[in-house]
Automatic annotation (TrEMBL):
GO biological process, one term: DNA repair
Pfam families assigned: DEAD (PF00270), DEAD_assoc (PF08494), Helicase_C (PF00271), WHD_Lhr (PF19306)
EC class: hydrolase
Domain Helicase ATP-binding, residue spans: 40-221
Protein name: ATP-dependent DNA helicase
Keywords: ATP-binding, DNA damage, DNA repair, DNA-binding, Helicase, Hydrolase, Isomerase, Nucleotide-binding
The keyword Glycoprotein appears for this protein: no
GO MF entries: ATP binding; ATP hydrolysis activity; DNA binding; DNA helicase activity
Helicase C-terminal domain residues: 262-407
Amino acid sequence: MADGTATRGADVFSEFSAPVREALSERGFTTPTEPQRRAIPPLAHDRNALVIAPTGTGKTETAMLPVFDAIAESDFDDSEREGFSALYITPLRALNRDMRDRLTWWGETLDIDIDVRHGDTTQYQRRQQAEDPPDVLVTTPETLQAMLTGSKLRKALAGVDHVVVDEVHELAAAKRGVQLSVALERLQVLAGSFQRIGLSATVGSPTEVARFLTGDRPFEVIEIDAGSAIEFSVHHPTVTQKDEQLSRELATDETIASHVRVIRDIVSDHSSTLIFVNTRQTAEALGSRFKKLGEPIEVHHGSLSKDVRIDVEDRFKNGSLDGLVCTSSMELGIDVGEVDHVVQYGSPREVARLLQRVGRAGHHRDRISHGTVITSSPDDTLEALAIARRATEGIVEPARIHHASLDTVANQIIGIVMDEGEVSARRAYQIVTAAYPFANLDKQTFREVIRELSSNRLVWLEEDADRLEKSSGTWQYFYANLSMIPDEETYDVYDMSSRGQIGTLDERFVLNFAEPGAAFIQRGEMWRINDIDDDETQVNVTPIEDPSGEVPSWTGAEIPVPAHVANEVGEMRAAAAKQLATGANKEAVGRDLARRYPADVSTITSAIEPIERQIIGEYPIPTADRLVIEAQAQTVVINSPHGHRINETLGRLLAALVGQRTGASVGLDVSPYRIELELPRQASIGDVTAVFDETDPMHVEAILELALKKADALKFTLAQVAAKFGALKRYQGRERFGGDRLMAALEDTPVYDEAVREVFHTDLAVPETTALLERYHTDELTIATTRERTPIGVDGRSHGKELLVPSNADAGVIEAVRDRIQDDNVRLLCLHCTDWEQKKPVRRVRDQPRCPRCEATRIACLNPWDEDTPKAVRGGTLEEDTDADRLQRRAHRSASLIQSHGKQAAIALAARGVGPQTAARIIGNLREDETEFYRDILKQEQQYARTQSFWD
């Protein structure tokens, strides 16, 4: 192709060869889009580039037209052409299918072979691709891993001249992307230098992502402003008379009815609407409402079977469905035809997520994407306003690349050995560190990873010769670990009436909640469990009409709200408070904020109502520069608008140090705006403020690592990382959570180092929290305290999964909780004589338990599997790291409850995640009937399920 770097407008197309120009004309491409106009010239000159442009602006053609032109202009005819010319790598198999369909026309027109390869590709197709490689192969990162080790495929890969990575932002922030970065270096060893092209709709740190893509080789960034092509509005529904009838029809409260009504009206006003939600359980619950109303709206998420997903995609595309309730998998450009509006239900939590989602709408008509964010609480509204403003101005979060992830190093060392049969450690180090995420990996750490692999018999290390060779475990490990996605068990859900698969449930849900007779929602419909086949990891169900049931609680971390978004919420609160304090009314403040943020005055007014009450009560306003700590009984809330990761880090630090001061565990729950601590009886708000005063910011990281050793979060991650090192067999059953022995065995290894690094990277923000404490010690950050709850502190974010559970499901769920607890076993232990101990179901516990031997009423009620507490009470020998004093205190608190409240205390103590302190709080609540008692127990169990990994 001629030099077209300076070409403009339609001249960009005129520089292509005749076959491509004719195809463009036939396809109706007369004028290039802005990304094509700016990106095609450098791409046509084989330069590496990252192209960032809104969805629907022709990014795929932008990348592939120069590639097609290069292939068409090749000096070789079809009979002489060997190997793949280009790879098109996508993060999802569904995108593979879309790309093949999208590129097939070009291939047929230009006589270029295009094919797809992923995990579901048949053996016959794979053999054909090895024998007669297509010119362009569309594949996934994991499939490329496998291809690099096959002898025939390696020969085919040696011809690669171009690699296009789609949705590169999605991969840059994940370990599977870091794995891909090394795979591209392995490919470069095989094929020599090749052009690298990255495509994305949103990137907050373009230079960093381009370095990730290219291995820090020369590159260009072509970025089209996404914010200017997108319009947002944030809306908080108000309850109207219409919602009274709708709430009865849906068997829910009027607030949720108003949400459903507003979304239904938006769908009705448009021809095709995507309704994004943040969790699969919200998708199911919302979808069930629309199904009950008979609306042509279906559900789409990753736990539904492939056939179900393809069916709803096709029905939406052909106009049979007006709306699709979907999760993050639909962000990545799966082709569902024209979308003319996007609804985001609840704050999208991140700027990039909002741009990616709303960017799916409107381009086919007027190149402006339209989206509406529906919010449910004051926090939700203010957060959505901050995100919408930042999105309009193109202020996107930076990609958080996993630098130096050691389990990825281990995985890729095995891959390199598989590639080459035997290789020097020096050579393997050069290949790995050529990838940008590993550029600063030191040789000593690399050597320790190799030694760990050798000790696990995954490679043979000959130290003197500096040589790595395959061992008996190499091949099996490699093909079992093509992906860096954590290996977690899922159960297939089968409809017994049709024998078809309807989706999946994660193992944690099955173990904790699923049992024969239980009901739940999936695919927007109600199902009852017939039986669970653990050997086949299968749940067999039948459809039911009964509206009672639980929404499946799929595993998955909450989308973290970044600090800068939470800080802006604090700024909005401060600005509104200043005006309200000087006499302005809510409406006037709302009108002022509406000039800067995309929402109606009513929506903003509802969001600042707690701020008005805060001012009336003369409470301080929490901002980025002021934390407000409030306490009521043993609950302490630190109002901290600093986002999830900083609050998570600060919360764990406070829990660990307050626990250390008092010698008892501290409960922790975190949101972007609050840290909630449940203190032991001997602690107070003064212990919390003392931590701020006495903690050296430089010691934060060491304190947190020490605290993590007792937390399930680290043990869970350690088990996953250990599997990637081959340090344990692939997980089967519940034993993954038995991490104490694993921790002891691996503490001085790179496996442990990587687990800590991953928890710090994924969940925490240590440098930022250290800076926060430094600001406190230099008086740049202040702390205000109050010994009562404030309006802002109480008005926390409303969780969608709680709001969306049908209200009349309550009776059935409460009854199930009552029956389950009554059938659960407890261990009764007399603390007076310590001789009598007995296991029995709760229903057989007396109203006032008494020791049959000594007649004492000091009876502790313990978990049936608790062997340590009776030993501690009797002064027996315990494992070295077991805290006997803590077990004894817990037993005596339990016995005091039983002595005071009898069987009622035993019922509370038998609940999941309920200890003596929480049981006392549940019992102490004033309530009208027994149902309220069990409802409080259920709420606590749900809370425990959400926060379990944060309890030491």
